[in-house]
Amino acid sequence: MGYTAREEWQQHYADGKNFRQLGDAERAVFAEHTPVPEGGGRALDVGCGTGELAAYLASLGYAVDAVDFAGSAIARARGEHAEVEGVRWLQLDIENDDPAKLHQEGYDLISLRLMYPFLRDRSRVLHALGERLRPGGALVVITPVVEHTPEERRDIALDEDEIGLLAAGWKQVVRLEADELAVLVLRGSCHRGAAAVERRQPPTGHAVTGALAVVTDEAGRVLLGRSRRGMWELPGGKTSGPEDFAAAAVRELGEETGLAALASDAYVVTMLVDDSHGVPRLTAVVRITAWSGTLTTQEPKLFDRWEWHDLHALSCVGDVFTPAAQALDAVWPGVIPDLPPVHAYPVAVDQPPVPGEPAEAARLRHEMAETVIDGGWGPSEQVQEALRTVPRHRFAPEVNLATAYDGGDRAVITRRDETGAAISSVSAAWLQADMVESLRLQPGAIVFEAGSGGYNAELIAHVAGPEGRVVTVDIDPWVVRRTRRFLTEAGSGRVTVVEADAALGAPVHLVPRGGFDGSVMTYNCWDIAPDWREQLAEGGRLVLPLEVGGYTRAITFERRGEVLHARHFTYCGFVRDQGQQARTVPVAGFLDGELTLRFENGIAAPTAGLEEALRGPRHELATGVTMGAGAYFGSLQLYAATTLPTFCRLAAHRDTGVTGVAKDRDTPAILGDGSLAYLMHVQTRCGERPEEKEWEWFVRAFGEQGPQLAEQLAATVRAWDRHVRADDNSKHADPILTVHPAGTPDDVLLAGDVLDKEHCRLVFRWPGRNGHVPGPARHTDAMAAATVEA
C-alpha cells in the first residue's frame, strides 16, 4: 500500500479496506509512556485512518483531534466510532493545508502511526508538529522498519539512517518495539542547529566551478535533497564544457530532481568564492523562478530523497553542504546563522518577483490586518489594503508565520550587534500602519525612508500606488543586501535601496524636484537631521521616532518653511540610530554600581556630593495624584522631561537598595547641589479585581535640597494631572511642538519650554504652562527654576 496520492487513499477507504489493526503492544506503549497529564490532556492523531488509535486515546482521557487527508477515512471513522466522546474528526492534509483547524494552544501528545514513510517532506512536517507540542509533551512515531518488511514493500518502512535522522535534535528519545514495529517516543526541542559542512572527499583538479539551483514551490518553500553523504544539498553540480552557469543549474535540476526549467527563467544572482580542502571553488547561485514536472529522486545512489523546506526552519535543519548554506543565505540573508566566511559578488540582474506562499499566510495576514484595523491604527482604505496585501512574512523569513503576522506589539528582530542589542527589525504592524497613515500620501507620492528592511517600504509603495516611488537608505551593508534581495523576491519594483548614512538624506539625484512628499524614519532619532527637512516638500510630512529625555514618540511633523510643526504623537520604541547620529548617553554611577543617572538630553549635570547624600536619610512626599490599573502615564514622562531644567533618569541595578526602585527599572529624576529627587508610584489600595487597585505618585529625595526638589517634582505631577491627563488613556493632551533650525535666536521662537539638540531647537507648549524661553541654566539656579503654571 505504498500509495502516494490522496485519490488512492480516498479510494482505498471508500472500498471498505482497512489498515493494520492497533495491537495490544502499541496500546501498552501509549498507556505507559504517554499518560494523560493531570487535569486532562490534548492529543493530535495524524493520519488517523478509520480512527482506531484516536478512539483509544480518547478512552485514556485525551481530548483528541484526529486528522486524515482522505475524506472517506474521516467519514468511516465518524460512523464506526459514533459513540466515542472527546474526538474531533478533521479532514486535513497535514503537509499542504492551512492548519487553522488544529488546536492553537498545542498538544500534549502527537501520534503518527504507520504514516511517517508516506510523507513527502518528512523533515518539514516533523519540525512543524514538534512546534505544536506543549512543554513536556511527546511525539510518538510508530513505523515499520526495513529488517521486518518484505523487500517489495520496503517503500513503507524506515531504515536505520532514516530513524536516526527522525530522532536527531530531540532532547529525549525512547525507542521501543511493538509487534516488530519501531516506536519512537520523542520529547524536548525538535530543533537541530544548522551547520555548514564540507564533503569528506576533497575535490580533484586545480579549481572547481559549479552552479546551485535555488527553487521554491507554490508555498514559497525551498527544495533540498538529503544526500547519501548525510547532509542537505541544493540541486546543482559542476559546469560541463562551455556551458554557462544558468544552463548548468537547469541541467542539474532536471538530472537530480526530474523538474524542468527554461534557461530564460534561471538568473545568476551571486557568485561565491571560497575553497574546499585547499582547492579554489567558484559557485554560481542561480535563482530559478519557474519550473514544471513532478519531483522524483532521479539519482538514488547520490540522494535519498528531495523535500520542500520552510525557510524559517532552515536554521535547525541540521547539516547543510557549505556552498548550499551560503547560496541560501545569498537569496535570503539571515535564514541560516553563523555561516563560515565567503567572498560574495552579487550580480545585478532584473530578476522578476517569485510568487509563492502557503494558504496559512494569507489567512494570518488578514487576521493581522483586522487586529490592526480594529485597534484604530489603519483607518484609510489604502493602508488597510496594503496590510492585507503585502506579504510581511517574506521580509522576515527567519521566523514562523504566526510570529511574522503577530498583530500585537511584537517586532521581529532581524539583526543584532556584537553586544546582542537589536539594530534592525520589522516593527510591530500597528505602529507601521500608524506611521504610514500619518504621512497622508496621495497617489503617485515619492517618499524617503531612513532605515531599511523592505516590508515598510513596500507598505508605503502600495499606498502610493503604481505611479509612486520609495527611496530607502540604510548604513548597514548587510541590511541593504537583505532588503534588495527580499524586494527582488517579493516586491513591487517601486522601491530603490541605497547604502548610505540616512542622516545625510537621500542621494541628490534621487530627490524629486520640490522635495519628497513624505519622509519616515524607522529608528530612534535623538536629533532631526537638517537634510530631512530640506529634502521635504513644503507641506510634506516627516514621521520619526524622536527621543526626548530618553522617551520615544513617533511624531508626525508638517513642514512650513524652515519650521516643522507637530501634528500627531504615538508612544513607541525603535532600534537605536547609527552613523552620524549615533551617540553615547552621559551617565554617572553611584553606590558601587547600584544606581545610575542617565542624562538623556545630552549634557551631564554636576553630581558632586550626591554619593554622600544617597548614604544619608531619605525624604518622602505624597503628591495626592492617584491612578488605577492600566492607567497611562507616558505623557507624565514626556511632560517632566521637557519642563524640568535638571531632568535625568534614575536607573537601579539591584533588587534591594536605598531608593526602592526595582532592578532594571528607571524613573524620572531631578538634581540639585548634592541632592536628588525622583518619582515613584506606590500601591495604596489592593483588591482581587483590577478596578479595586490603586497607586499614588510619591516623590522621594536625598540631600540637603531634597525637600525643595521634592516639592518641585510634586508640583510637576500635580500640574500634569490638572492640565494634561485624561480619564481616557487615548485622550491625554499633547504639547504644541515646533522644531526650528539650530541657531534660531530666542526672540524668534514662540514662547515655550525649549530643548536644544545639535541640529535643531524644539519648543514645547503644554496646556496650563505660561511659556518661557529659559537660557542654559547654571546648576545652582536649578532650585529657583520652579514649574511655571497658569
UniProtKB/TrEMBL annotation:
Keywords: Cytoplasm, Hydrolase, Methyltransferase, S-adenosyl-L-methionine, Transferase. Its main location: cytoplasm. Residues 204-332 form the Nudix hydrolase domain. It is found in: Cytoplasm. GO terms for molecular function: methyltransferase activity. Gene3D superfamilies: Nucleoside Triphosphate Pyrophosphohydrolase, Vaccinia Virus protein VP39. PANTHER family: PROTEIN-L-ISOASPARTATE O-METHYLTRANSFERASE, PROTEIN-L-ISOASPARTATE(D-ASPARTATE) O-METHYLTRANSFERASE. This is Protein-L-isoaspartate O-methyltransferase. It comes from Streptomyces werraensis.
